[in-house]
Amino acid sequence: MIKQPIYLDYSATTPVDPRVAEKMIPYLTEKFGNPASRSHEFGWDAERAVEEAREQVAALVNADSKEIIWTSGATESNNLAIKGAAHFYKGKGKHLVTVMTEHKAVIDTMRHLESEGYEVTYLMPETNGLVDMEKFKAALRPDTLLASVMLVNNEIGVIQDIAALGEVCRAKGVLFHVDAAQATGKVTIDLAKLKVDLMSFSAHKTYGPKGIGALYVQRKPRVRLEAQMHGGGHERGLRSGTLATHQIVGMGEAFRIAREEMATENERIRYLRDRLYKGMSQIEEAHVNGDMEQRVPHNLNISFNFVEGESLIMAIRELAVSSGSACTSASLEPSYVLRALGRSDELAHSSIRFTIGRFTTEEEIDFAIDLVKAKIGRLREMSPLWDMFKEGVDLSTVQWAAH
Amino acid sequence: MGSAWQRYKTIPSLCRNVELELKRMLPTYFDHNATTPLDERVLQVMLPFFRERYGNASSRHEYGRAARKAVDDAREQVADMVGAHPSQVVFVSGGTEANNLLIKGAAARCQPSQVAVSAVEHSSVTRPAQELREQGWKVRKLAVDSAGRLEMDDVKIALRESATGLVSVMLANNETGVVQDVATVAELARSVGAMAHTDAVQALGKMPVSFAALNVHAMTISAHKVYGPKGIGALVLDKRLDIKPQITGGEHEKGLRAGTENVPAIVGFGAACALATSRLTELPLKLQQMRERMDQGLRTIGAVLFGDGAERLANTSYFAIPGIDGETLVMVLDRAGFAVASGSACSSGGTDPSPVLLAMGVERELARCAVRVSLGRDNEMSQVERFLQALQGEILGLKRLVAVAI
What we know:
The complex is a heterodimer of chains A (403) and B (406).
Chain A: E1 6-7, H1 18-28, H2 41-60, E2 68-71, H3 74-88, E3 95-99, H4 104-115, E4 119-123, H5 133-139, E5 144-148, H6 162-172, E6 175-179, E7 198-202, E8 213-217, H7 245-281, E9 286-288, E10 299-304, H8 309-315, E11 319-320, H9 336-340, H10 345-349, E12 351-355, H11 362-381, H12 384-390
Helix pairs in contact in A: 1-7, 2-7, 3-4, 7-11
Chain B: H1 2-9, H2 12-25, E1 28-29, H3 40-46, H4 48-51, H5 62-81, E2 89-92, H6 95-107, E3 114-118, H7 123-131, E4 138-142, H8 152-161, E5 164-168, H9 182-191, E6 195-199, H10 211-214, E7 218-222, E8 233-237, H11 263-279, H12 282-301, E9 304-305, E10 316-320, H13 326-335, E11 338-339, H14 355-359, H15 364-367, E12 370-374, H16 381-405
Parallel strand pairs in B: 1-11, 3-4, 3-5, 5-6, 6-7
Antiparallel strand pairs in B: 2-8, 7-8, 9-10, 10-12
Helix pairs in contact in B: 3-11, 5-11, 6-7, 8-9, 12-16
């Protein structure tokens, strides 16, 4: 018997790996010291644990541990990176570049900067979700101070060519920020090679705890930021506030596991995703959103034509999936990411994001395929649009009468 | 240690010895104003949210809805403890973020004028206030007397001499434990149309804290000072107050604070508040008795007590042994098995004397000798007695060293 609903929403959040939880618990209970306490073993113990975790996070992305700053999550990291750099380098220019399909934490932060007088270019991606290099180059201006492009998209899972984008930025003297919240443990990240100045991370998308993230701040060449949270001067003055030791330890362990196991794990997950893809492909008028090659192995985002999105979600309640990203799915607006790919409102509305993870089984995937097939069949049986489509009516030419 | 421990456990007599030995080895924790151990019951409440009920509270499926429900329940528990409405509780990553959010967020919504903060505020209030200078704000420090109490006359002067947009005075000081008359400050602030904020991080759980009774517009609280987890706090906020979010990127916390909700920590915060409320009658009494013995013993030894005579939190003793450097004393006390602090744990590194003591008019030399003992719910009177004995011994030793050096 499969536990229901089946969790296929690993891009929204992941369960904490049991090994991670086990490592965290002592830092909640007996090793509870404040890492900033300088006068006793409780504090020193906590500080040692924090520094070990910093090494583990740095190791996954081949950075120096001194380049890792703890934050409360990727949203805060994105805010700190973008506002912090824009404020610090405001003498250098007032223009920033990003992509329409970025996470809200980047888009909203850019909007915030616009209200302060900065100018922002929001690049439209290609229909496969990827950024065109020439369009990106053309968007950079002499007064551009920062560009922000995510490594892996949260909705459609496409992987941007960060290496090439970074080269362009470095050549033009533009700071390059990358939101890698969805990428850790899924794609290899080598910050020693990449021309990336700032990179955001989150623990809870990689089997670590919620409420903890990090920002990579490159040291050579040195990137400066204006702190966004002021107080005791923790994290070398870049981010004040008592460090949540257990969460940090959890992120370190989660990233250690990701580094050691991602190669084999991704193979297994890719197999499951491809199986799911194959199953879904048998459904008529199912359209994959985003490039299928330049894509993380655990994501499948599909729009089902001639099915109403809300009815579909209700019909497949045995699956915990999302339509649009988790952070915006409380609203009934069609996903702005899918709209940016040129999808119609109808197709955007009827999209389902399946994201597979460490604890997904083949049995669950097969159950999901059968369920979706059956439910879509039933929904379409009741749909006059589907009937018209099957009769060969070109729906785009139909004149709808208001009544 | 695990396997060795298992082996010992099979031999009852040995086992008892080991237990005694372990007890002797564990230092006595007297630094509860820095952070507190997580209550075992809070841990039990949190654990399922790591492994089984791990949904993102913004997700609409069952996992998400279960997480949302847990967050809502915790919000009620937190609100209940501080006499607020659940809708007034905004979860953030901790006290520092709450103070930053309120000060910068409120200032962003009004014309620059004066921001008045007490001279003994935590750095997470004073630093954001100083940041406001860039936008044309004037920062006015409100004076305290030699016992660390806010000079109410100076508050009146400050509000008279310059148009004031925001007043922030902490409810209880992290170093001295001195409690301020925040309700009166709020009344004075309101009379000139200024917003009133209080940082109640240290007061929570050690004395009754009521958002409604204090009559402030906003109040900061944190979980890890009340036997809850680190990494979670709240800004309790009068909804009529318009503040600008400082972390953007989603409609979390009614648009005031973006970022995926830290569900296990929020749940832990709620549970910690519920437990702290149930302890609020008996715990301060127990702490008070131990603290009185502590103060009496310290006086006998010749210590100068800071904040003496002022209303203080029941758990805090802040003192100096003239001529003995505070840093040195905490080190020898650590070796003797007592975890205490010199000054505030949050001011990283620096060996500058405490700004709180300097604001109280304490001489720099004496301020450098400051040591803080902050008691908690697991402490016992016998630990206080042993501490006083150890302290006396260490002082004699250190004084002898000084004498030899001369």
